[in-house]
From TrEMBL:
Region annotation Disordered: where it falls in the sequence: 142-164
Keywords: Kinase, Serine/threonine-protein kinase, Transferase
Taxonomic classification: Bacteria, Bacillati, Actinomycetota, Actinomycetes, Geodermatophilales
Domain Histidine kinase/HSP90-like ATPase: 27-136
The protein's name: Histidine kinase/HSP90-like ATPase domain-containing protein
InterPro entries xref list: Anti-sigma-factor_SerPK, HATPase_C_sf, HATPase_dom
Sequence intervals crossing the membrane: none
Pfam families (UniProt xref): HATPase_c_2 (PF13581)
Amino acid composition bias (Basic residues), ranges on this chain: 154-164
Gene Ontology MF, one: protein serine/threonine kinase activity
Length: 164
């Protein structure tokens, strides 16, 4: 079972092609996602940009970067290291607090992005390096299915039943 908690762990070393962006706002994300998809398509040794692996990378990248922009402090730097068997995502910002994960919250209220990234990742964590926090995830190209994915417990409350 994967842990939804993001614990302190250094960004693992990785080798491969490195793609990096400085991200100023959430409005920059559509163009950056297109660039990431184009780069995935350009390298014949990586999964096709429309494959399930590429979709997981793009979704996880978007979640980590948008979290840094919304909850962190700029500047935000995003990096993807692509190797034949793994994508290492490393997103850094200037807020040095642990990334919060939603626990005991109804998923309808959002905040499930880090749980989703954790479910896709072979490993994940955050690391403080100087005055920057790095939130990272290593996504295998061929993920092993998790028979028991971890999702936060939804807070159950009684709601009136509406009969139409």
């Amino acid at each position: 079972m994967l842990s939804p908690h993001w614990t302190s762990a250094p960004v693992p070393p990785a080798s491969g092609e490195v793609w990096a962006w400085d991200v100023g706002s959430v409005a920059d994300l559509p163009a950056i996602r297109r660039q990431l998809r184009t780069r995935l398509n350009a390298d014949g040794g990586l999964p096709d940009a429309n494959s399930a692996a590429a979709e997981r990378v793009i979704l996880a990248f978007d979640e980590l970067v948008s979290n840094a922009l919304r909850h962190g402090r700029g500047p935000v730097h995003a990096q993807v290291t692509a190797s034949a068997d793994c994508f290492l995502l490393d997103v850094s910002d200037a807020a040095v607090d642990q990334p919060p994960t939603a626990v005991d919250r109804d998923p309808a209220y959002g905040g499930m992005g880090l749980h989703l990234v954790a479910a896709y990742a072979g490993s994940h964590g955050f690391h403080l390096r100087g005055v920057r926090k790095h939130v990272w995830a290593a996504l295998p190209v061929e993920p092993q299915p998790d028979p028991d994915p971890v999702l936060p417990r939804a807070r159950l409350r009684k709601t009136p039943r509406l009969d139409y």
